[in-house]
Amino acid sequence: MSKSERMNIKNKPDEQREAAKATGQVDGPAQEVVDEPMSDLEQCQAQRAELEDRFMRLAAEFDNYKKRGEREKAEFLKRANEAMAGDLLPVLDNLERALGAAGEADKQTLQKGVEMVLGELRKTLERHGLEAIDALGQPFDPQLHEAMMQQENPDVEEGAVLSQFQKGYLFQGRLLRPAMVVVAKAPAPAEDEAASD
């Protein structure tokens, strides 16, 4: 298309110019320059819309994942407690039987029955990860023991556990309850020795 034809098209009224554009009579470098930025802009807008859509979907999926994880965790804890409760039912049954037989049985028979039930309870709890802390004779450990008092004892090394008021327990390797203990301390020097010094 010659320069004069382009000038003629530019001078035509707007309707004719639009018709010429539609039929493809106007083309060339000027038209390409105008179309390119528009197509790039439209392309960027389409990409932006697509990315926004993907982001919204990912955000929704992540939210659903978190909710599902919380539900599964709650369900797991519920089922874990259910299993322990089921394992403790025989112990409960045996305690009820022991109480029912308490009136008929003599003291030794009752004591033997309660000891059997206690052993059964310990085994059940140990299966689930409960472990008693062996404190007697051990050196005092503030991570496992709680000192209730100190007592002089020349026969035992200072800082050793002499006795315990209450047993401590670990549950699956973590401290559940510290052992409440009496700790040995060195005897105070006698008054005669202090006076001679």
From TrEMBL:
Keywords: Chaperone, Coiled coil, Cytoplasm, Stress response
Superkingdom to which the source organism belongs: Bacteria
Region (Disordered): 1-38
Gene3D superfamilies given in the database record: 3.90.20.20, Head domain of nucleotide exchange factor GrpE
Cross-referenced InterPro entries: GrpE (IPR000740), GrpE_CC (IPR013805), GrpE_head (IPR009012)
UniProt GO MF annotations: adenyl-nucleotide exchange factor activity; protein homodimerization activity; protein-folding chaperone binding; unfolded protein binding
Coiled coil start-end: 41-68
Keyword Cytoplasm applies: yes
Location of the protein in the cell: Cytoplasm
Any one GO CC term of the record: cytoplasm
Biased composition (Basic and acidic residues): 1-20
The keyword Coiled coil appears for this protein: yes
GO BP annotations, alphabetical order: protein folding
Record note on quaternary structure: Homodimer.
Entry similarity comment: Belongs to the GrpE family.
Functional description taken from the UniProt entry: Participates actively in the response to hyperosmotic and heat shock by preventing the aggregation of stress-denatured proteins, in association with DnaK and GrpE. It is the nucleotide exchange factor for DnaK and may function as a thermosensor. Unfolded proteins bind initially to DnaJ; upon interaction with the DnaJ-bound protein, DnaK hydrolyzes its bound ATP, resulting in the formation of a stable complex. GrpE releases ADP from DnaK; ATP binding to DnaK triggers the release of the substrate protein, thus completing the reaction cycle.
The protein's name: Protein GrpE
Source species: Desulfarculus baarsii (strain ATCC 33931 / DSM 2075 / LMG 7858 / VKM B-1802 / 2st14)
